[in-house]
Amino acid sequence: MRTYDFTPLYRSAVGFDRLAGLLESAARTSQENGWPPYNIETTGENAYRIEIAVAGFKPDELNIEVKENLLTVTGRKTANDDGNGRNFLHRGLAERDFERRFQLADYVVVKTADLVNGLLSIDLERELPEALKPRRIEIGGGSKLIEGKKGKAAA
């Protein structure tokens, strides 16, 4: 296991503490178990999709929550061995609870979530506020004069 010390970054950079925290968090979570597997893809200039393999889960056993730029997907499996007469010789399907967290950039919002064929697809989009979008500034021809007055003339 390799660990990284971000202390020099904290000492020499102002305002990047959130970035360093994200790097530390990513280093910690990359060493956790890899279940359930997932994909992250870009589907457009400001659009993304997260697909999580959740075979065997029903929509009411899954929860998606966004709080302060943190997307959390949780699966809570209802018990399947409730005396329904099933006798397993081998049980290889992972029907265990899980929690998957994704750090979202500023202004990234969840648009939709669908569960199809065991894949939970979460569509996200970056929605920049109008104040942050680039805008074209018109260039004027100078200051306008008051009508009828062109300046003071020596009398």
Key terms for this structure?
single chain; 155 residues; mainly beta; Immunoglobulin-like; 2 domains; 3-stranded antiparallel beta sheet; 2 helices; 12% helix; stress response; HSP20-like_chaperone; A-crystallin/Hsp20_dom; ACD_IbpA/B; Molecular chaperone IbpA
Quick description:
The chain is mainly beta.
What does this structure look like?
This protein is mostly beta strands and 155 residues long. The protein has two domains: 1-32, no CATH class; 33-80 and 92-132, Immunoglobulin-like. Helices cover 12% and strands 32% of the residues. It is built from two helices and seven strands. It has helices at residues 7-12, 17-29; strands spanning 38-44, 47-53, 62-67, 70-75, 98-103, 108-116, 119-126. The chain has a four-stranded antiparallel beta sheet, with no helix packed on it. A three-stranded antiparallel beta sheet has the order 3-4-5, with no helix packed on it. Strand 3 (62-67) and strand 4 form a beta hairpin. It is elongated and about 100 Å long. 6% of the residues are buried.
Distance between the termini: 89 Å
Give the radius of gyration: 27 Å
Q: Unreliable runs, pLDDT <50, ≥5 residues?
A: none
The SS-based structural class is: mainly beta
Number of strands: 7
Order of helices and strands: HHEEEEEEE
Tell me the fraction of residues in β-strands, as a range.
25-35%
Q: Please work out how many helical segments DSSP would assign.
A: 2
What is the helical fraction, as a range of percent? 10-25%
Protein name: Molecular chaperone IbpA
Domain SHSP: 29-142
Keywords: Stress response
Pfam family, one: HSP20
